[in-house]
From TrEMBL:
The keyword Transferase does not apply. Residues 1-25 form the signal peptide. This is TRAP transporter solute receptor, TAXI family. Keywords: Signal. It comes from Vreelandella arcis. The keyword Signal applies.
Amino acid sequence: MRNFKPTTMALLTSGALLAAGSVQADRSEWPDNFTVGTASQGGTYFVYGSGWANFIADELDVSGGGEVTGGPTQNLALVHEGNAAFGLTTMGPAADAVNGESPLAPGLKMDNVCAMFPMYETPFSITTLADSGIESISDIPDGARIGFGPAASTSDTYFPAMLEELGVDFERRNGGWSDLGGQLQDGLLDVIAFAAGIPIPAVSQLEVQTDVNIIEFNEEELEIIKENFPVAEFSIPASTYQTLEEDARAVSMWNFAIAGCDLPEDFVYEVTKATMENNDRMMSVHRSAATTIPENIKHNTVLPFHPGAARWYEENGYEIDEALIK
């Protein structure tokens, strides 16, 4: 073990005390508590967001938790207005919000919303009961009752337009994922069109209780949707659900965690650091967090990064275009 001279040890101790004092001073500007806007119970956003909030609260010793919301579109508004410190959103609604095209606030450019870290891709997938006879999108009958999730959610914003583009005629229904799953099982709905991280808790629960069909896009349908919507091709692995025997074709949008741009830089830095340096812990929250890694910051080309988040990425060798830092 190396022996230090008394003067050297004194200097080190003094430096450590000064550093501790600096950290304490920075921390004094932190909020006393925080909320994370998630989505409805039974969906991946709620599980991921609530688990992440609990992790950050424990890691940084700040009171915080997840809040049930209408999903990505509402979360953008909540964060912009300062009614939630953090939220979860999808790139489609985020682009609409910064351009003043949010359905919740037409004309208002939400410029107090900053990106923190990548979460996962949101696949758009369709589930029916096996005894419905619906095995493809073209099998969906005219006037089918389709549940699209909470009003103004990513699913409700984009999936109806996608199905209309594919010539599906339907009655639009909204609600939380757990409720819609129950309605499907009770015969009150014919189809549920999900946009959520996989595995979707409501679908996993459904397939334990009854036989379901998970409907994929055929190649022609896939090309039509990719040409007309801000999505990418995605494959749902067969291992995701016990119902699937092989990978299923789908489309997806990326999700990012967002923060109020006016939150203290040091606070957001520590939140980002804790999240990016503990992927195993994030995976224990939800396995979709396998892609909650810094390499995926490249999938945000819409929102400015919070300077606290950007500082962590740059310190760790990840480049961000200066134009994308608030």
